[in-house]
Amino acid sequence: xxxxxxxxxxxxxxxTLTPTIRLIEIEPVDGFVAPTPGxxxxxxxxxxxxxxxxxYSVVGPCADGAYRIAVKRLEASRGGSAYMWSLAPxxxxxxxxxxxxxxxxxxxxxxxxxxxxxxVTPIFSHALALQRAGARFRLVYACRSRSDLALADELRxxxxxxxxxxxxxxxxxxxxxxxxxxxxxxxxxxxCGPIGMLETARRAWAESGRPPDRLRFETFGASGRWPAVPFxxxxxxxxxxxxxxxxxxxxxxxxxxxxxxxxxxxxxxxxLCALPILGLNGVVDHRDVFFSDAEKAANAKLCTCVSRVYGxxxxxxxxxx
Length: 321
Known about the structure:
- The structure is a single chain.
- With 321 residues, the chain is of the alpha/beta class.
- The protein has eight helices and 16 strands.
- 41% of the residues are buried.
């Protein structure tokens, strides 16, 4: 659920962490609310001349009263990351108070933190909180290349050998099932990363027979198995044919065309924006974590907020009323 954009801040500083990730410090004007581990800020961005909202994880406890968020510049960005990267010190930014859908539960005997790419941002806060609490935990951080690592030096300085880095170009993928097998029977797993990592973790967790509520994850809705391409959307019941650009979500295209939609998270988690699939010329790139593997394979519905078509056309029905 989106938080209320009812606060104002100014960009205090920016710092480039990797060629594609920038840390932005925001000094709030309307009072500082201390974030809890896993918190995020919703911020107002401009996509061309149209206002929109984007959500970014808060990095660390922000003990000095300034919020820190990390923004990955995406080639296939719908415009949010490009706008955030355009901000310079002194820029005004409307934002929410910290919200949290990925909170940390203390008191477990063991923790496994799994981070992939920019997914390290909320996991960073979890790791620092667990370290301060004296908890038993491990953090496995995966990236394609060493140039993609963000916050790794800070993590190593804070948690030492509890951090394991896996570089795809050097040693392949994380053995998620093996990492889960090492976890205490009453331990918890926190995962944030690309959709492939999330689905692998969900599958391995289910196969382990552990309680479902001990697997916690957060999505960022930007990754898929296929690159974003433009495609046509047909809605026979409304007599509409809509062009969906590579830089626009299916949900945004529907709303821009005047189709009344039901939506909440806009991150592929709640399923409220899902629509029935009537026809397809291409492949559905299911980027959500709401539907199961079997439901995705059946291709009966898709979450319009994050999922796309790799192909030329899809035909959908309208929302149920």
